[in-house]
Amino acid sequence: METVLAGAGVIAVAATALVFVQREAVHALLYLIVSLFALAVSMLALGAAFVAALEVVVYAGAILVLFVFVVMMIGSRSAPVGIKAWIVPALLSLALLALIGYALYRGMPESAPRPSLAEISPKKVGAALLGPYGIASEIAAFLLLSGLVSAYRIGRRPVAAPPAGAADSASGARP
């Protein structure tokens, strides 16, 4: 599992570094998706399957959908994403898939921590997540909402004023 953890860490660092050097937001989002999946694989290699599932569902799912929505709302004036933009993220994703296949082939070592098989109800999970961390989750939701409103305000195109003569002709007044 150390090999999987190290490989996922290298892929995560490489993909995250590539996020910052991209000029187009859509290309950066491709690398961010790969980076978040690599972090999920590293969590899985550490034995935290629930955290890995949350990483995929919350970050790689919900947050990136929000980012894509903001990028589409602001609008990109560049050409559509070509096939060349998919090559490096696809190679990193294939390397990540190979690491997952290797981990499945090798199996869990005997010394690895085993998850508890006790059944936990959704009510207990919700109470554990929102009980002591309720204020923090509300603050995070407020920050995400304010970011969305700010992105809308920044990306909004100004409404052009009608020409000076258009108002007079619309009311029917004659000069």
Q: Can you describe what's shown?
A:
Helices cover 73% and strands 0% of the residues. It contains seven helices and no strands. It folds into two domains: 110 residues, Four Helix Bundle (Hemerythrin (Met), subunit A) (Up-down Bundle); 37 residues. The protein has 175 residues and is an all-alpha fold. The mean pLDDT is 77.
What does the secondary structure layout of this molecule look like, with pairings?
Elements: H1 2-20, H2 25-45, H3 49-74, H4 84-106, H5 122-130, H6 134-155, H7 164-171
Short description:
By secondary structure, the chain is an all-alpha fold. The protein has helices spanning 2-20, 25-45, 49-74, 84-106, 122-130, 134-155, 164-171.
Determine the CATH superfamily of the largest domain: NADH-ubiquinone/plastoquinone oxidoreductase chain 6, subunit NuoJ
What is the level 1 CATH name of the largest domain?
Mainly Alpha
Name the quaternary structure.
single chain
Shape: flat
Flag low-confidence runs. none
CATH topology of the largest domain: Four Helix Bundle (Hemerythrin (Met), subunit A)
Counting DSSP H or I runs of 4 or more residues, the number of helices is: 7
Give helix % range: over 70%
The largest sheet is: none
Q: How many distinct beta strands?
A: 0
